[in-house]
Amino acid sequence: MGDILVLAEHRQGELREVTLELLTLAGQLGGNVVALLLGSGVDDFAGKIAGYADKVLVVDDPMFANFNGMAYQAALAEIIKSEKPGLVLIGNTGQGMDVIGALAVELGLPFTTDAVAVKMEGDKPEVTRQYYGGKIDGTIDFKDADTYIVGMREAAIPAGEGGKSGEVAKIDNPVTSEITARKFLEYVEAAIGDVDITQSTLLVSVGRGIREDKNMPMMEELAGLMGADISGSRAVVDAGWLPTDRQVGISGKTVKPKLYLALGISGAFQHVTGMKGSDLVVAINKDPDAPIFQYADYGIVDDLLKVVPALIDKLKEMKG
Amino acid sequence: MNIVVCVKQVPDTSDPDTEVHIDGTGRGVDQSKFSFVINDADNYAVEEAILLKEKHGGEVTVVNIGPEAANQVIRMALAKGGDAAIRLDDEKFAFSDVLATARLLQSAVKDGGFDLIMAGCLASDDGYGAVGVTLAQLLGLPHAAMVKTVEVIDDKKLKVGRELEGGLLEMNEIEMPCVLTIQTGGNEPRYASFKGIREASKKEIKVMDLGATGLAEDQVGEAGSCAIMAQYSVPEVGELAEILEGDPGTTSARLAEILKEKGLV
Questions:
Q1: pLDDT of the residue at A102
Q2: Which of B185, B235, B241 lies nearest to residue A298, judging by beta carbons?
Q3: How many distinct structural domains can be found in chain A?
Q4: Which residue segment(s) compose the domain that A64 sits in?
Q5: B29-37: long-range contacts (C-beta < 8 A, 24 or more apart)?
Q6: pTM (2 d.p.)
């Protein structure tokens, strides 16, 4: 099989964990692992990545000080043409999703996104994806090509320990003219509210299953009795029932409380990624097939609007 | 500003009663019990398009790939403020992957002289999150994905905020015409008014079949795809939670005991 080219991902001076996950996966697939690092002043990252790769290609140029999907696309296109890898792995992240489809069309290469597992069948990747909110899996059949592009889900596989010591090779920036159609301006940090849920010991976390805004006071009463903070899923934040800083998941916060009580949360991977490190997870959901039950220690399959009032009564009794 | 907004009709998987069963072919699911809705992110894209139109003028064209039943989501977008609609519908479009889907959308919008093309950043059913960015390259236009905020700088440029992991916004300036994929949560999708719904029912939905797209048969559907979903399977499920059985009185009492035993209450 050909080389596997892995795109390194970094942001605000930090190498993102997905880079090491992708490199670990590439190492497991066999073949030569080539990491591509686009950045400016990124020697530290190159050193770390070298522990997971057979070769690290570094383009060190102010153009890549911050991410610009179109500049990344231009650089990747040239480097894929010259390196001719058999497989390109890119994180299916806020950065990767901004590049993959356009890059594949530019090069005329087959591609897929949000893979949760990749195996090699000869020279061809066999990719597993999830459909319908993770309720079923599907395998991807690629058209024959010399190179395939796969967007890999973040946190789908753990990063290993590395154990390689690849050479670091600086190469010239293949993008010779500035990208003018799109320019990076700045980062705007998410708002910080009164409670930092990443520090909470107990979380009562609500999802779409609470159905209506007017059910929030009941959840707040429960949280108050338990001395817990309230957090929620993206759906609840999008609906405006909770402020953005209470959102748990990939686009929100990663929490590790002693208790995570998930009320009406289905457990989409975007959410689970942010809470699976909790000590004890209890889920209440009407849907017995909800993925959240795969991550919970205890579950109640029932209407939370019936269980929560009963639980409030029980807790009041216990407190006397 | 003339805007295209791409909308997809999807099964309402947020409904706990929606069960997903693989059909006999292994490449489809039993849709007979599904209720269908507009894809969540597309709903935010529709709202963003209408907000821009209200502020800066122009027209909003709604584009969909789907059967006649998808008229429901198209009409709702028209009722909220859309002006025109195109629906791409041909049995030869079945099994289109991201690339073939983007090609179909390209055929519908390439000659429209649009300033801005928007789509939801992710569909809740198949979750590729790639059609908009793929479409941009086919059209030769700049793009930005996962956009949560859109601001008009002047008639040639937009300032957009892309939402990254952790909720960080990456602000970009982008030239029009361009393609944006819209993330949920950046606006408050409105409800259609009765007047809007009445007016929308009279608006024409232009239907394009394969012939109307100008595409060859091997550019669409399975033949035109580079990466098709070949086989559905039931996922291996890890160890499930211990389910507490009984009526709410029983389950809540048991849960309260467990929390007490563990020193959590």
A1: 98
A2: B241
A3: 2
A4: 4-170
A5: B29/A131, B29/A132, B29/A136, B29/B232, B35/B11, B36/B9, B36/B10, B36/B11, B36/B12, B36/B69, B36/B70, B36/B72, B36/B73, B37/B9, B37/B10, B37/B11, B37/B12, B37/B73
A6: 0.95
